[in-house]
Amino acid sequence: MTAPLLTLAAVGATYPHDDGAVDALADVSFDLAEGERIAVIGESGSGKSTLALAIAGLLPSTAVSVGRIGWRRPMVGGRDIGFVFQDPGASLDPVMNIGDQVAEVRVRHCGEGLRAARRAAIDLLDRVRLPQPSRLARAYPHELSGGQRQRAALAMAIAAGPRLLIADEATSALDTVVQAEIVALIGELVRAASMALVFVTHDIALASQISDRIVVLYAGRMVEAGPAARVVGAPRHPYTQALIAGHLDLSRAPAFPLPAIAGAPPDPFDPPRGCRFAPRCSHAFSACLDEPAWSGGIGDGVRCVGFPLGGEP
Amino acid sequence: MTRFPRLWRSPEAVIGLAILLTIAAIALLAPFIYPGDPHAIVARPLIAPLVDPAHPFGTDRLGRDLAAELAHGARASLLVGLGAMVGAIGLGAGIGTLAGFAGGVIDEVLMRITEAFQTVPGFLLSLALVSAMGPSLGAVVLAVTLSAWTGPARLTRAQVLSIRERDYVAAARVIGMHPLRIAFGEVLPNALPVVLSLTAVIVAGAILTEAALSFLGLGDPNRVTWGGMIAEGRAVLRSAPHLSIVPGLALVTTVLGVYLAGEGLTEANSGRKGQP
Amino acid sequence: MSEPLLQVDDLHKTFDRGGRRVRALAGVSLDLARGETLAVVGASGGGKSTLARVILRLVEPDRGRVLFSGRDWLGLGGAALRRERRRLQMVFQDPLAAFNPRATIGQILTDPLAIHRLAATADPADAVVGLLARVGLSADLAARLPHELSGGQRQRVAIARALACEPDLIVLDEPVSALDVSVRAQILNLLHRVQVETGVAYLLISHDLAVVRAMAPRLAVIDQGTIVEAGATATILTSPGSLAAQALIDATPRLIVSPPAPPATPTPDGERKP
Description:
The structure holds three protein chains of three kinds. Chain A has helices at residues 48-56, 98-110, 114-127, 133-136, 146-158, 176-192, 204-210, 228-233, 238-245, 306-310, and strands at 6-15, 22-32, 37-41, 64-71, 81-84, 164-168, 196-201, 213-218, 221-227, 295-297, 300-302. Chain A is α/β, with parallel strands linked by helices. In chain A, the strands form two sheets. An eight-stranded mixed beta sheet of chain A has the order 5-6-7-3-8-9-11-10, with helices on both faces. By secondary structure, chain B is mainly α. Chain B is built from twelve helices and no strands. The model of chain B is unreliable at 272-276 (pLDDT under 50). In chain C, helix 3 (105-115) crosses helix 4 (124-134) and helix 5 runs parallel beside helix 6. In chain C, strand 9 and strand 10 (226-232) form a beta hairpin. Chain C has helices at 48-55, 78-84, 105-115, 124-134, 151-164, 181-198, 209-215, 233-238, 243-251; strands spanning 6-17, 20-32, 37-41, 63-68, 71-72, 88-91, 169-173, 201-206, 218-223, 226-232. Chain C has a domain at 6-99 and 168-249: 3-Layer(aba) Sandwich (Rossmann fold), CATH 3.40.50. In chain C, the strands form two sheets. In chain C, strands 6-7-8-3-9-10 form a six-stranded mixed beta sheet, sandwiched between helices. In chain C, strands 2-1-4-5 form a four-stranded antiparallel beta sheet, covered by helices on one side. The longest helix of chain C has 18 residues, at 181-198. Chain C contains nine helices and ten strands. Chains in contact: A-C, B-C. At the A-C interface, helix 6, helix 7, helix 8 and helix 9 of A face helix 5, helix 6, helix 7, helix 8 and helix 9 of C.
């Protein structure tokens, strides 16, 4: 078996703050094989963006990171790792046309001349299904729709042929229809180039559609991970179970009250002691006041005291 | 909540506030430290500073105590600064809010009036007004207000134009709130922090305008003012330069204090904005 | 047949966006009965937000007619409109943006009571506590500022503000799409309970068909400023008659539940297991 492209070992990060440090992420370990697609799911304060930034080496300089992020070979950000943000404006320069921005990546990372890079850029814009790529290459970001901007950002992210694409809530700001198109596009691009993918989302349905493996984060802790089919089909952590039970399906009108998780995600400045989901968990008991250990293998297991004790909680 | 700790972390703000508080204290305590008329002759004329411990800043051509004059002069400067600030920001914010919130014809008319005021040089307007009304502190405050309100008005209008599109303004309309209450209760308070960043410029400008008017002999003749003191000293500038330099330094220090404090406050405010 | 609560007839609205004319509404008609929930779905830019804002009298249409309880709603103005606004309320998508950042929750809830003189008790503070309790919030939140609350709490306050007016109709503009996934069901449950208790009608504006399926028995699909399809939600979702509806259905993320993988066979790299 070949070594994984990426190995995360006990990765974590804290953000120092006026009112004490925020423990944004701790103890995340998993491997990512070449061409593997991992979805990281979580809601606000789950640490999912912190994890995405940590993998890309883009954490703000004020953050204190721990753990080890190991690559099979040296990786260059922007060339070997492509990153797509939720807001495409974050990676697009408003005063440079789309074609030149994509070409710039080729010039910098592939050693191409500007002329060849511009030709390559038009080809890339075509690959992300922008209509009339040679015309849109001359357009500026503000002339594009939100979906088109995200396509352009995607073209930049894959311009240098990365081995890993990280999409951080890349479709959350988009309309349902456009979101579906972009998700399908990311899936195709990744498969065609056998790129690895880290797809960060809050939507477990979206995650189940695009990924081989799902990592569930809650309040800065990795609470469950495993093959997508296993996590969705036989979730072990009460949080994952509740997410799946609460998923609204088009096929039938649900009965009220809908299955709901009580409460809200914890205040990052004042997280609960022990298991961070315990205050909202219907299975919680006294042992949940201790920080639960990870049980299972690397990238396939659960962080819940109740699981090994009582089987399916 | 975190505004004050933040403020204390900025050295400019601390220095600025310290200067202003000192001057304000001197102004408030002047009648107790130097009771009686500061225009009274108390010693022989033209004592140099730091010679006679009873008159640390020396005396002027008529033998009046410079320190007493300085302390009483601070009152005029601060009064004009405060008065003009309240006047200019009050008038400007009111007109800017109406123009921005009402839009249409009201906006057009109010903004043309604002532009008309902007095209008249402020100091000329002040000169004309004080000449017409006769020299008094109130006239100076009114003059400075009329030449300084346009900045706050335009800034308020720009803020209001952006804030009136926010959801919470729509929400206020949906619950049936009266438009005037929306304008002054919901929109203006959220526009004001940005407009208040003009405070330092207005206060400093007002103090300097008052000094300039007094220097030209258009100040309140019944009050000691720093501008008047500088004008007094002009006649003996070579032999006794301290008569002009000391009030000049007081003026510079006050304006500096206003700017530093204003800067610090603005910074503390904007720093807070990013916080959730 | 009883008279509908809301009748929208042939609304037109064109915006001028930097010299370009954008047709947001091109002849929209719909009606809504008392106590009913009607969803209006469509892609962004399809006109559903403009429709909501016209109905709420936040935007004036170019032409068309809106009857609210049989009365000409677009003809109302000034004090008469402000008085009648009580009956037609709104819950916004982003509950943080929908509150004056400087007002406490107590002030936010007192405003509608004071404007319409609705407080049942002499003390408005008691009324505020009562409103908070109705949406499942504790009384001590009244002293807080909106940014000190969680997203779900804010949306509850927004619902309480609408309820304070004792409305006949609440326009729900994407009421849960800005909320955390684990909080959405709570808010939908609350909205459902409020409707059962008060008989208020909802006009639900959304692009999330799953939420629409749960909340609204009736559905109108809006695309490029016109209603392209309307009818029972269950029917449209199973056999859509318009491309716009079909596209939305296809795009809605589905949970792919495959049978769980068989237990992993022991592999030679067993040393990786902790």
